[in-house]
From TrEMBL:
SUPFAM superfamilies in the cross-refs: FAD/NAD(P)-binding domain, Succinate dehydrogenase/fumarate reductase flavoprotein, catalytic domain
Alphabetical keyword list: FAD, Flavoprotein, Oxidoreductase
The protein's name in its UniProt record: FAD-dependent tricarballylate dehydrogenase TcuA
Cofactor: FAD
Length: 459
């Protein structure tokens, strides 16, 4: 039987859309490219949801207002956002958290410590994999059907509507003619050739933190047919991750949180950016792009013993040495240049008595061309530790342009039965940069909107 609604993708946004549509009485089929053990896209690797709230809400303490949330977003995007859609996502997030709990998601008690997120971000008990599994269980109870290893190859656009959906499964080509389609199949980051076309050859050195199944097939198909696009193909959520991470699917555990307490150098042992620019959840996403601009797209973190326990432990142990020279040798860095860089940095450090690892402390260097504006302490206490950094791409921002109903368009004309949610349309709000937990907010808010609108259309 042909479903009322086909949802393309199997992550958070797709599941929120599918559950919402099913609750409105629609028959829903999810087409998930991945095999069942790898279902859930990048959502498997997530940890938290950024949420506006007036007063304590669930695991969140105090309050986090719409204006403060928007200011945080404007800071990381440099103002490159659709403010109306951003406000919609922010404002809707408050009602999403109890909705998520009602649909099976469990949250950890509020966090304290290095992340400073107890007020802004609710963390999933068991991480993103638990969230995904909870949603699949709820979706099944609601009658949502799921086809795994179902790779959508084409959506046929006729005038202002999608006439059919083609996909392959078990080596067979299949076709569906649903009343409505929701695209929630992510960006194109797992297609290294597409990344290289956008970024240049340097992109071949990038690591892909998320699923290898987000190759942008549906996105490319719709853009080629004239569906309105948004975003810059060179913009993405990219963070600096452990250089020893796998090419694909290393996930969130490959992230390194040590940058604020370090100096970061390139292969010539030269610093290239202020490591203490802001608290880590707001600034960590700039480091992927910074590393991408360095020779061979690699950077190196240098810390000493007194900083080792100030950040979340890494999945791979750091390189350790008793002297800076030995550390340089072990990391393949020029020994004399690293020693000089560290000595120059140390000499520029002043009074460190106000050092405070979880907030902007103003403990800064003086006289350096590239300052360190917070957490600047001399690197003097052996043993010394190092990590290599590579650019880890989470998702790309080129996507489908949507309105406040999550509906896609050709020019200014809506496609009558096509909606988009999640990373596929996140470029509408994220012009550049990233705010921790905001991808899940976008997926949840616009997944619910898309599900509601598609179900209304189908009925």
């Amino acid at each position: 039987m042909t479903p009322d609604i086909v949802v393309i993708g199997g992550g958070n946004a797709a599941l929120c859309a599918a559950m919402t549509a099913a609750e409105q009485g629609a028959q829903v089929l999810i087409l998930e490219t991945a095999p069942k053990p790898y279902r859930g896209g990048n959502s498997r690797h997530t940890r938290n949801f950024r949420c506006m709230h007036h007063g304590p809400l669930g695991p969140l303490v105090d309050s986090y207002t719409e204006e403060e949330y928007l200011a945080d977003l404007m800071k990381v995007t440099g103002g490159k956002t659709d403010v109306a859609l951003a406000r919609l996502a922010i404002r809707s997030s408050e009602e999403c958290l109890p909705w998520m709990q009602d649909h099976g998601v469990r949250f950890q008690p509020s966090l304290s410590g290095t992340l400073s997120l107890a007020r802004t971000n609710a963390f999933f008990l068991g991480g993103g994999k638990s969230l995904v599994n909870a949603y699949y269980r709820t979706a099944e109870r609601l009658g949502v059907q799921v086809a795994y290893e179902a790779a959508v190859t084409h959506l046929e656009l006729e005038d202002d509507r999608i006439a059919w959906v083609d996909y392959t499964q078990n080596g067979e080509s299949r076709r569906l003619t649903p009343k409505a389609v929701i695209v929630a199949s992510g960006g194109f980051q797992a297609d290294t050739d597409w990344l290289a076309r956008a970024w240049g050859p340097a992109a071949r050195n990038f690591l892909i933190r998320g699923t290898p199944y987000n190759r942008g097939v549906v996105l490319a198909d719709l853009l080629e047919q004239g569906v309105a696009q948004v975003g810059d193909p060179t913009q993405c959520h990219a963070v600096a991750i452990d250089g020893r991470a796998p090419k694909f699917d290393g996930g969130i555990v490959t992230r390194l949180d040590c940058v604020p307490f370090s100096i970061v150098v390139n292969k010539d042992a030269q610093r290239f950016h202020d490591e203490g620019e802001d608290v880590w959840p707001k600034r960590y996403a700039i480091w992927g792009r910074l590393v991408a601009a360095q020779p061979d797209q690699v950077g190196y973190v240098i810390i000493d013993a007194k900083s080792l326990n100030l950040f979340m432990p890494s999945v791979f142990p750091p390189i350790k040495a008793d002297t800076l020279e030995d550390l340089a040798k072990a990391m393949g860095l020029p020994e004399d240049k690293l020693a000089k860089t560290v000595a120059t940095f140390n000499a520029a450090c002043g009074d460190t008595s106000n050092f405070h690892p979880t907030e902007l402390d103003g403990v800064a260097t003086t006289g350096l061309a590239i300052p360190k504006t917070n957490w600047a302490r001399p690197i003097t206490e052996p043993p010394f530790y190092g990590y290599s950094l590579r650019t880890g791409v989470t998702f790309t921002y080129l996507g489908l342009k949507v309105d406040e109903r999550a509906q896609c368009a050709i020019g200014n004309r809506p496609v009558s039965n096509l909606w988009a949610a999640g990373e596929t349309m996140a470029g509408s709000i994220l012009g550049q940069g990233y705010l921790a937990g905001f991808g899940m907010t976008i997926g949840t808010v616009f997944g619910r909107i898309a599900g509601k609108e598609a179900a209304a259309h189908a009925s």
